[in-house]
Design brief:
Radius of gyration: 17 Å
Number of domains: 1
CATH architecture: 3-Layer(aba) Sandwich
Number of strands: 14
Structural class: alpha/beta
Strand content: 15-25%
Strand order of the largest sheet: 5-8-2-1-11-13-14-12
Distance between the termini: 19 Å
Number of helices: 8
Largest sheet: 8 strands, mixed
Length: 255
């Protein structure tokens, strides 16, 4: 079982649909995709006269921003990916975290992050039903607010959503795909592996910042919760299992 998160910038790669299609055809009942689209959300915010603000790689989200997220992520980005994959011969099904409460979430910190949420429960049964039927779930990480008695949406970071889904599906691998080959050190070289104990140091000294810091935190959570393998890489890592940066339990582990 493999859970793949495709960042927004990586979606511009012309190889996207063919590589995802090949991965699905190789294992059509054990692949699940979560997507981002942060740059497009930010562009829409600017068009509406708002400024995108991030704290620790997570978007500060006002109540009015939730409609922008639904429109861009669950509408435009999700359906564009589904359409392209169907054209490539993949039985793709588009979902958001709101559908059948696929991603239940709770507010992280209302004062600093607004309506940004962390996943609390994944409807893994829905995903397994789709995959067992030979479909590829394509998931927008707009979560369902479990704290609001009237429902509502929460903005869940795509890496956090993918990590929670990987844990719920007992995935063998969580693949976090960005527009860079892996996590880079201070000299710009790709690190082949990072241990759990090194993650905090990389974030605190600024080597990993913004979105990459969020990816490392999500990788940390997934490994601690039982996912066997986490890798951060570019799109070529879909076909090359040795590409990118491996997040490992300990420096003593050999890849």
């Amino acid at each position: 079982m493999r859970v793949v998160k495709i960042g927004g910038r990586a979606q511009a790669d012309p190889r996207l649909f063919s590589l995802l299609g090949d991965a699905w055809k190789h294992s059509p009942t054990s692949l699940c995709v979560v997507h981002g689209g942060g740059d497009e959300v930010s562009a829409m915010q600017r068009a509406l006269g708002r400024e995108a603000v991030f704290i620790g790689g997570r978007r500060v989200t006002s109540k009015s921003d939730l409609e922008v997220l639904r429109m861009v992520l669950s509408g435009l980005v999700n359906k564009r990916l589904v359409n392209g994959l169907i054209a490539a011969g993949v039985s793709a099904v588009g979902l958001s975290g709101e559908d059948s409460a696929l991603i239940k979430a709770e507010i992280i910190n209302a004062e600093s992050l607004g309506f940004a949420g962390r996943p609390t429960n994944i409807n893994s049964g829905l995903l397994r039903t789709l995959m067992d039927a030979g479909s590829l779930p394509i998931i927008s990480p707009v979560g369902y607010s479990q704290e609001n008695p009237e429902g509502g949406a929460l903005n869940v970071n795509g890496d956090d959503a993918a990590a929670a889904i990987a844990v719920a599906l007992q995935a063998d691998e969580l693949l976090l795909i960005a527009d860079v080959e892996g996590v880079r050190d201070g000299q710009g070289e790709v690190l082949p592996a990072i241990s759990l104990e090194s993650i905090r140091e990389l974030i605190e000294d600024g080597t990993a910042a913004g979105g990459m810091a969020a990816k490392l935190e999500s990788a940390h959570a997934a490994l601690l919760a039982g996912v066997d393998r986490v890798r951060i890489c570019d799109l070529a890592g879909l076909a090359d299992n040795g590409r990118g940066t491996f997040i490992i339990q300990s420096q003593s582990v050999v890849i």
